[in-house]
UniProtKB/TrEMBL annotation:
Lineage: superkingdom: Bacteria
Organism, as annotated: Blautia intestinalis
Record's keyword annotation contains Transmembrane helix: no
Lineage: Bacteria, Bacillati, Bacillota, Clostridia, Lachnospirales
Name of this protein: GDP-mannose 4,6-dehydratase
Record PANTHER family: EPIMERASE-RELATED
Length: 343
């Protein structure tokens, strides 16, 4: 990726900002164009904080705008002619998709279509885009493999991410665009998304509020530390699916999908226990904090699934990488950051 131009959407987001920071630090001559609409789905100060860390780089250009604005997206492709596109801009969150579906249709479907059209008219070497473990829906088989059928989404968010994979496949086939979809599994870490459990729980406990533990604690999540996600993305960006023709002389779609997860699901109650210990260690909460009186076990929420569990064999086979940060290591870094940022 030396001396190349990379277009990252959702660059002020959690994964996008960490990816951009890593690329700017490590790759000689790289130019990054970042797009973000800076919406207020969560505290904009976090997005500004992430962006500020990138803005000191002379080879970083920021465009504030909406993925659904086709004219804007086309103008970025025309002006910067990126060789690699990483589409991380999307409306995230399972629960919010139940109350505000319009945001998902606009950002995740229309926005992604605009990116595909940009890649079609201004040919790129590789399109990498965020999918989600949510596509596995009510899949009973674990661990989740990319070979599994994913036709049972349990939220609109999941349905839009599955749609992205289908749209990318069609464009790969029709226009020979190398594309790779990444199914991320519960990403966490410093300066993450406040709507995620670890962050929301911390805010609530600090305010003396009660945290709700869904499915009476009988949930398992494959928590993946953000630096592991970024490492996976960086490797995959450099390994586009090969363009080749089939026996009929027509292109075989240069298309791939991978899981990026920790391959080690944690029970929600164990996760809460580790979070408590690390919040006390970082002095976010006092040693004598009464956690028991601030916890409530409640039924499953609509759109949620009881377990997420990534089969990462394909990622290991093709890119020699497997996420390895333990939950305690990751939550420790989050707790230390939280203390520094908010207290």
């Amino acid at each position: 990726m030396k001396n190349k131009t990379i277009f990252i959407t959702g660059v002020a987001g959690f994964i996008g900002s960490n990816l951009a920071e890593r690329l700017l630090k490590e790759i000689e001559g790289i130019k990054i164009v970042g797009l973000d609409n800076m919406n207020d789905y969560y505290d904009v100060r976090l997005k500004e904080y992430r962006l500020e860390k990138l803005s000191s780089s002379k080879t970083f250009s920021f465009v504030k705008g909406n993925l659904a604005d086709k004219e804007l997206i086309n103008s970025i492709f025309e002006k910067y002619t990126p060789q690699v596109v990483v589409n991380l801009g999307a409306q995230a969150g399972v629960r919010y998709s139940i109350t505000n579906p319009d945001a998902y249709i606009e950002g995740n479907l229309i926005g992604f279509y605009n990116i595909l059209e940009g890649c079609r008219h201004y040919p790129v070497e590789h399109l990498v885009y965020a999918s989600s473990s949510s596509v596995y829906g009510s899949n009973k088989k674990v661990p989740y493999s990319t070979d599994d059928k994913v036709d049972n989404p349990v939220s609109l968010y999941a349905a839009t991410k599955k749609s992205n994979e289908l749209m990318a496949h069609a464009y790969s086939k029709l226009y020979n665009i190398p594309s790779t979809g990444l199914r991320f599994f519960t990403v966490y870490g410093p300066a993450g998304r406040p709507d995620m459990a670890y962050f929301g729980f911390t805010n609530k406990l600090l305010n003396g509020e009660t945290i709700k533990i869904f499915n009476y604690g009988n949930c398992k999540r494959d928590f993946t530390y953000v630096e592991d996600i970024v490492e996976g993305v960086v490797r995959i960006m450099q390994g586009a699916p090969e363009k080749k023709n089939g026996e009929d002389g027509l292109p075989i779609p240069p298309y791939a999908v991978y899981n990026i997860g920790n391959n080690h699901p944690e029970n929600l109650l164990d996760f809460v226990q580790i979070l408590q210990e690390e919040l006390i260690r970082a002095r976010v909460l006092p040693e004598d904090y009464d956690f028991e009186s601030h916890k409530e076990l409640v039924p499953m929420q609509p759109g949620d699934v009881p377990v997420t569990y990534a089969d990462t064999q394909a990622l290991e086979r093709d890119y020699g990488f497997k996420p390895s940060t333990t939950l305690r290591e990751g939550l420790r870094k989050f707790a230390e950051w939280y203390k520094e940022f908010y207290m």
